[in-house]
Amino acid sequence: MSSLNRRFTRLSLSLILAAVAALGAALPAFADNGVSLTLNAGTRTASIGNLTLTALNYSHSGQSQTGTLTLTADDSTGSGAGWNVTVQSSDFSYTGSSANGSSIPASNFAITTANAPAKTAGQTIDATNGPKVPGAGATGTLDSAHKVIMANASYGLGTYTQALDVSLDVPAQSRAGDYSATLTVTISAAP
């Protein structure tokens, strides 16, 4: 190899090494960095909108009146624990002007049909895991609590509505006036 070629090779190699060293000095140092996030849990709620049954006329015979309650259940906890909702009624208190009025027992007020829920927001309804109407016990008199809707673990992460068809049996010769009851709606974790 000629001395010119050797000088050129040395010069090229020196330039390449200098360029690599310059690049290495210009490159930033990397460290292990990360990003973190906290997702806060929301709440689990259930409620039923007010219902006014159509008025009846005084009668010497027993009569009944029907209506539909609308239940709303929401699971915004993010826990995926699953949940269930129960409904129970108080007696219908007489609020009329007659001193001889009496209440209508909660055992005369019943859920006749617990309809399939509908999604308002969130997770899609799964036919097997819910939210869904429980296999048994969703209908009956409301003097005791009835589980009307439920979701298994990992399901029901959203907001859902459910129509509950109800019937009130009004005893014969019930005093004319107004009657009202209070519904207790409870949502609990776990199906």
UniProtKB/TrEMBL annotation:
The cross-references to InterPro entries, in alphabetical order and at most eight, read: WxL_dom (IPR027994)
For this UniProt record, give its keywords in alphabetical order, as a comma-separated list: Signal
**Secretion signal: which residues?**
1-31
Q: Where is the WxL domain?
A: 36-191
**Pfam families listed in its UniProt record:** WxL
* Protein name per Swiss-Prot or TrEMBL: WxL domain-containing protein
Q: Which domain of life is it from?
A: Bacteria
